[in-house]
Each structure stands twice: as structure tokens, then as C-alpha cells.
Amino acid sequence: MSWERCQQPSRHKLQHSLSPVSLCLASGALLGLLACAAALYAQRLQIEGLRGELAELGMLVRANGRPRNLQREPSEELGGCVAGQCQGRYADSAAAQLRGEDSSSRRRRQSDKEGRGRTRRRSILHLVPVSTETYEAVDSTVILWRASSLQGNAFEPSPAATAIKEDGFYYIYSQVLFHDWTFLMGQVVMKVGGGESRGNESTRLLTCFKSMPENAEQAYNTCFSAGVYFLEKGSVLQLSVPRFNAGIQLADHSTFMGVIQL
After folding, report:
1. pLDDT tens digit string along 37-90?
2. How far apart are CA 60 and CA 67, in angstroms?
3. What are the residues facing 257 on neighbouring strands?
4. Which helix (H) or strand (E) holds 17?
């Protein structure tokens, strides 16, 4: 009895002193457990949602192949380039990949593009009349010209003839306005030479003849001729009228001759 009586005051005192601390610890532990449980529950819901989305995506892939919203556009796969609209360092290679070209095809296409960029302007010559010379012995009148328009290096014009400096196809045209009452008038374009083997051999390229009115006041007529021919380097073009002392109107807009390199 004496020992129990001695222990009761000390136990009561200890319980009285520890009760506030125990309550605080118990409250904190309870709140922590509730927070952890809430976080775990939210995480579980997110995981379940992701699993559901992955399951739906797998069904789409099995049913229809690669889903449309996951198919990358060509611009994404080729560095942001679309054929015909590419800019930047890899534009040509990206466009070529879209067309299915290999590296050799791309190089050949690039070379053709650069070649076109370096292409010279085609040569052009337009002649207008200055005066005429007539020769009774050969019954001929020759028109002397001056160059009204000249472009390129394929021609070397002179008053009575035009020398060709480059092989190739050329468009040749001529027009003469006659004021003459001779019953028939016209002009002839000749090519002289053309290569070492031809020497001074002449070839008739264009011939044009027109009937003329008998009335001198109305005796006007225009004769125009044109054609495409291959001209050799060194050949010479000449225009003549097979009439002595032919009546010709020497206006720029009515009598002229020209050659265009094709």
C-alpha cells in the first residue's frame, strides 16, 4: 500500500505535463497522412487517365494506321521547307527530297539552272535604208543600209551586206516599198559563201515579186518575205532588186531588213 501511494502522485504529474505535446503531435501526424493520401489519390487518377488515352491511341493505330494528328508535315521532316517555297541553306535539297530526286539529279538540275542564268541575249539586227546603187550591166539595184538596232555579237553589218559570225538558225525578214510602173517588181535575199568549201557560192534564200500598176501615180506596192535558215559562220547576206534603176521608197517604216538569231 505504501508503494502504490507513492507512485500515484508522480504518474498523475507526468500525464498532466505531456498531454499538450501529445495532442500537437497527433494532430500533425493526422494532417500529414490526410495530405499524402490526397496526393496519392490525385496521382492515381492522372495515371488512370493516361492509361485510358494510351489505350484509345493504340486502338486508333491498329484500326487506321498512324493517326492524322501525329503525322508530321513535310515541312517538319525536311527542316521547315516545302517544295517550291523553301528558303535557306537546305531549301534545294529539301525540295528535291519531296520530288524524289537523288543527288546527281539535283546537281544536274542546278547546273542547268546556272547555265540558263549565264545564257547570252540572242543577237538581233534591224537595217533601214540609206541610199541605193544601180548596175545596168547586171540589171540590178542594191540598197545600202545602216543598223537601226543591233544586239549581240553574231552580226557584222556593212552598207551593202551583213556577215554572219556564228553558226546557227536565224530568222530573216525583208520588206521593200516600190514606186515603179514596171509590170513586175521584187527583191531577192542571197547568201554568199558559208564555210571554207563554199567559197563565193551564192544561194537564194528569199524571193518576193509583186505586180505593179501601169499608172505612174498609183504605181506603189510593198513586197515582204521572211523565213528561218541555218547560216554558217563566214556567210554573207545581201538584198538586191533585179531591176536597173528600180524605184524604191527609202523610208524606215516601209523599206527594211533584219536578222534574228534563234
Report:
1. 777 777 777 787 777 777 777 777 666 655 444 444 444 444 444 444 444 444
2. 7
3. 127, 174
4. helix 2-64
pLDDT score, position 149? 95
Nearest to 176 by CA among 246, 249, 228: 249
CA torsion, points 77, 81, 84, 89, in degrees to nearest 10?
Answer: -130
| Cα(63)–Cα(201) distance, integer angstroms | 82
> Whole-angstrom Cα distance, residue 61 to residue 72?
15
Q: Please, are residues 168 and 234 in contact by the beta-carbon 8 Å criterion?
A: no
Q: Distance between CA atoms of 226 and 219, rounded to whole angstroms?
A: 24
The reported pLDDT for the residue numbered 85 is 47
Distance from C-alpha of 238 to C-alpha of 243, rounded to nearest angstrom: 15
Look-up of cell digits 567559197: 199
**Of how many residues is the chain composed?**
262
Residue 102 has a pLDDT of: 60
- Largest separation between any pair of C-alpha atoms in the chain: 175
Which pLDDT band holds residue 32 (cuts at 50, 70, 90)?
confident
Closest CA to 105 of 93, 117, 88, 116: 93
Percent of the chain as helix, strand, coil, to the nearest 5: 35, 35, 30
| Contact by Cβ (8 Å): 247, 138 | no
The answer to whether the beta carbons of residues 203 and 233 sit under 8 Å apart is: no
Q: Choose between 186 and 15: higher pLDDT.
A: 186
Q: How far apart are CA 110 and CA 117, in angstroms?
A: 11
